[in-house]
Amino acid sequence: MNELVDALKRKLILKYVYLMSGILLVYSFVFYFIIKDSFFAGCTLLYSILMFYTFLVIRKNYNIKFLVHLYLAYAPLFAGFIMLDFWKYSAATAMWLLPVPFGAYIFLEKRYIYIYSTYIILIIAAVSILTKLFTFDYFNLDDVSVIVVSDTFVGVSNIMVFSLLIYFNEKIRKAEIERALFQFKYSESDHQDQIESELINSSEKEQIIYSCDNTEKYNILFNKVKSLIEEKETYKDAGVTISQLSNVLKCNNLYIAKAIKLNGYSNFNHYLNVCRVENVKKLLNENDISRVTLMYIYTESGFSNQSTFNRVFKQIEGITPSEYIMSINHEKNKSIVYTK
Questions:
Q1: Cα(100)–Cα(79) distance, rounded to whole angstroms?
Q2: What is the mean pLDDT of residues 224-248?
Q3: For every residue of the chain, which 3-state class applies, written as one string?
Q4: CA dihedral 151, 154, 157, 162 (to 10 degrees)
Q5: Burial, 217: exposed, middle or buried (Cβ in 10 Å; 0-12, 13-18, 19+)?
Q6: Selection from 260, 243, 261, 264 nearest residue 252 by Cα
Q7: How is domain 271-339 classified at the CATH fold level?
Q8: pLDDT, tens digit (0-9, with 9 covering 90-100), for 31-89
Q9: Greatest alpha-carbon span in the chain
Q10: What are the structural domain ranges in the chain?
Q11: Nearest CA-CA partner of 27 in 50, 52, 47
Q12: Cβ burial, residue 161 (10 Å; 0-12/13-18/19+)
């Protein structure tokens, strides 16, 4: 499973290098023939060739994270260099920086999303300040249609890049979830757990065990589900499904659903959301909300967007996340006053 995730990431890097080298090659022609700037045309062409050739040299043996960090560090600098001359005509060149946080999301830990997002914001701010302090007149554009052509090309190119990243992101996330479930399946070493696993894995015994309302056997099954979802923190993966659990436990979806229901939850999604909300509450209590973002907390807990998070939190806790945060702050203030 590790090999599959690794292979998908390497394939994405390969496709990205081919796509980006092609885009930069075409952009160098746009610079030379439409914008009439041979200097930037040469820079872009050289950058394209260098990227492609360097990757060909190292593609058989390279560290994925190191390569991604290296690229995410220097690619925005080159984009910022191009932006210096375009900024007074159009800010659309800043779109070259947009895939950077998404790339960090796919390949790196979550904290790097914020680090590289801050990095590109600083580059944009630096470009804005430098263009106010200095004049960068590498070329002059009197024809507005040329800017339109350039902006259109930048927009279309970024759509292509994002489409590639989104396509592979889905495949990588799915493979990562399957890897986590697969690792869990073979991580149990206790002899009793092995016996229970064999019992659940047996298709012949499954009908006997679960055909009647055998509470003990359903509790055994729920404990295995709980171990997988809560102890292994699989609930943090927004895409985890009951079918994936079924594949790991070799048990019918219906039996898993019934085991969950017998333990006080409406369905599998309700159980997942309870685990996620509990983790949100834990993070809110452990962290200073003024120092961490709410987005970090709910994505770290497995919620894919804020609207879903707000709705689910209100359904389970009876109050909104904002009201809960206010109650935490109120308790902390009371504690401070009482201590004094």
A1: 11
A2: 88
A3: CHHHHHHHHHHHHHHHHHHHHHHHHHHHHHHHHHHCCHHHHHHHHHHHHHHHHHHHHHCCCCCHHHHHHHHHHHHHHHHHHHHHHHCCCCCHHHHHHCHHHHHHHHHCCCHHHHHHHHHHHHHHHHHHHHHHHCCCCCCCCCCHHHHHHHHHHHHHHHHHHHHHHHHHHHHHHHHHHHHHHHHHHCCCCCHHHHHHHHHHHCHHHHHHHHCCCCHHHHHHHHHHHHHHHHHCCHHHCCCCCHHHHHHHHCCCHHHHHHHHHHCCCCCHHHHHHHHHHHHHHHHHHHCCCCCCCHHHHHHHCCCCCHHHHHHHHHHHHCCCHHHHHHHHHHHHHHHHHHHC
A4: -110
A5: buried
A6: 243
A7: Arc Repressor Mutant, subunit A (1.10.10)
A8: 888 888 888 899 999 999 999 999 998 888 889 999 999 999 999 999 999 898 888 88
A9: 81
A10: 2-181, 188-264, 271-339
A11: 47
A12: buried
CA-based nearest residue to 199, from 191, 179, 258: 191
Q: Which amino acid is at 21?
A: S
| Tally of CB atoms within 10 A around 46 | 12
- Which pLDDT score is estimated for 202? 46
Kindly give, in sequence order, each residue whose CB lies less than 8 Å from that of residue 236, ignoring residues fewer than 6 positions away: 276, 279, 300, 301, 302
Confidence of residue 141 (pLDDT cuts 50, 70, 90): low
Quick one: tokens of 229?
């979802």
Quote the CA–CA distance of 73 and 76 in Å, as a whole number. 6
C-alpha span between 107 and 173 (Å, rounded): 10
- 143: which 2 tokens? 């024809």
Q: How confident is the model at residue 195 (pLDDT cuts 50, 70, 90)?
A: very low
For residues 78 and 27, what is the distance between their CA atoms, to the nearest angstrom? Answer: 14
Q: How many CA atoms lie within 13 A of 243 on its CB side?
A: 2
